[in-house]
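Appendix B. Extra example for self-study. Work through it before the problem class; the solution is given directly after the inputs so you can check yourself.
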Amino acid sequence: MKATGSQILFRALEEEGVDVIFGYPGGAVIGIYDELFRQKVRHILVRHEQGAIHAADGYARASGKVGVCLVTSGPGATNTVTGIANAYLDSIPVVIFTGQVSTNLIGSDAFQEVDITGITRPCTKHNFLVRNVADLKRIVHESFMIARSGRPGPVLVDLPKDVMQAETEDEEFPFNAAPPVERPLDQEVIAKAVEMIASARMPLIFSGGGVVYGNASEELRELAGVMGAPVTSSLMGLGAFPASDPLWLGMPGMHGTWAANTALVHCDLLLGIGVRFDDRVTSRVSAFAQNARIIHIDIDAASIDKIVRADLPIVAPSKNALSAIIAGLKATGYAPSDAVHDWRKQTILWKITHPLGYEKSGAIKPQYVVEKLYELSSGKAIVATEVGQNQMWGAQFYKYDEPNCFISSGGLGTMGFGFPAAIGAQAACPDRLVIDIAGDGSIQMNIQELGTAVQNKLPVKIAILNNSSLGMVRQWQEMFYQKRYSHTILDENPDFLKIAEAYGATGLRANKTSEVEEVIKKAFSTEGVVVMEFMVDPEESVYPFVKPGAPLCEMDLGPMADQAKKAA
Amino acid sequence: MESQKNVLSILVNNKLDVLARISGTFSARNVNIESISANTTMDPERTRIIITAMGDNAAMEKIVKQIARLVDVIEARNLAGIMAVTREMVLVRLDWSKRENRREIEMLAERKGWKILSADERNCILEITGENGLLMEEVMGLHRFGLEDFTRTGVVAIEKGL
Ligand SMILES: Cc1ncc(C[n+]2csc(CCOP(=O)(O)OP(=O)(O)O)c2C)c(N)n1
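Solution. Structure tokens for the complete assembly:
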């Protein structure tokens, strides 16, 4: 049967099981949108293309499926670049379809022409410019396969207007777009890992996004149980291991817990799983896990030895590697030694003597708001964050017990990510409570997406921790720049409640600590999109704090220092 | 760490932008490509790209891994320290107007296995192949015959069979 490029595109998307597209129309894709008019697939119209790519990203993080966005050529395409880089750094599978001028015009600086495959080459896993309609179906399927296989990532497909209008036979697609064959696990390496674990006295598990997105949370939980070893996770890995488990030490790194950072200093075996040893975690690399032998499991060979030298690298999907190690430990009759028991008790003691905390005073404390969000949602929400202090408090004070529930821009640190990502997560999980923990700065970077959320009935609850400043930068200025608050004070913020109302959402504000609970309860019981604004203490800083480049043992505990002293 | 000469041999699918992706990997790591040569292989759908670059072991290891994970790259290896033969070619233009030089150049070419590709009243063009370092010494030695210009190919390399 003859079909146009546009029809073939939607057929291929259907075959890939795509149920939502986040997009924005324009001249180069008007034909595709005309075909979309006749199609069943859900399309969510955003208000800015950055919103589309972040929503596709959030959808992917919450659902584990590939997120899809569709935008026009030129400015539509360039508006997605930040979001593409964001997905690339966090290894999130998304496919971006961009319109392009007709093939005969490519290279002529035509109206709304940009070389988007050139622009995105360093921040996509791969990209394609479709030059011939006969290649379209294959390329669409390949793009999904590439996005989701191996180390996932964004794939961009550039669609010239004439290619999408051209007709061809829509034949059955020969599925030669099979994922690359996985190399079988090296049993010798697994045996070596088992041996290293068995001889360790102070083992520590450090898991990351590769466990969440590699679908290996169950294996991680089982392994920790078998090893009797404490667990810490990077920001990207939160939720893969339950924060309510006694073996959980919290997040390590610059704003990590005392227990996690201290365990990293002392452990004699570090089992890194699907982590890339970001500098926000390692701080001074030469002092990182100095006493430990390191086993590093990663699906991407390029991650191994990139920052930290691994004594035993295992290049494999985390799920397979963990299953094999568990089987190996069981087969050799492994049971945690007395030394391991003592070590675990020691780490629990660190947790008790040095918990995360904050000083309670008159003003609303942002940490308190996050604690209340946790309590009143029974820990069952999907939480997206913006970037800055709000992100760190969202990571520290909401306890994540399940994977795919904490959605945050780890690698790129993109302000304005959280809200559209929450919209995407809500589209993926319509029955879940989805919260965006925001700062008053970040929320203004994509606040126009209130229109998207309201129109598409995606009842995201936004919690703005309003400190009238770009808090995280302000905190650094306080600590390192003698309180010269250069352009970080937002004392002319708009009235967020009026903005919410203008978009047809509900706005609620808490000025005092005593009002926090009521506002949250009301927000959770209100149908539709809600903007909560908490007027928090503008002077509050994130602790613990390890200065960039300092060893992890040099933690500034801030107001928790006194408490810790007493406990000790 | 010490910088050393590396010869990367990269087998790729013969696609439009694969070279741009590979060269981007070098610039992103702040490593300069010294020479590059690329052409199709026995399988016309595939191209072999040989790149030489200076860099320390750690940097090169990262670059090779990052290139290897590109979608259209089939294989990437660093031939430094592997049994391989490398060659590079130079085309040289010399002054051919002085009769006394002609005889000497012809004898030199004969002895060294160079080829005189063209010669007219004013200049001649020589083809010289050899191993990278030595080759340039030879070329520089031609100054005494009025070396006017030269152009070099990238390095080509092939591993010795087993
Ligand atoms: C797009 C972008 N621009 C700038 C920054 C640098 N930056 C990091 S945190 C931050 C402040 C964020 O302020 P706000 O959203 O109010 O959050 P807070 O830290 O106060 O919780 C800034 C400007 C960034 N991460 N992203």
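Self-check: Residues A 386-390, 413-415, 439-442, 465, 467, 469-473 surround thiamine diphosphate (CB under 6 Å). If your reasoning did not lead you there, revisit section 3.
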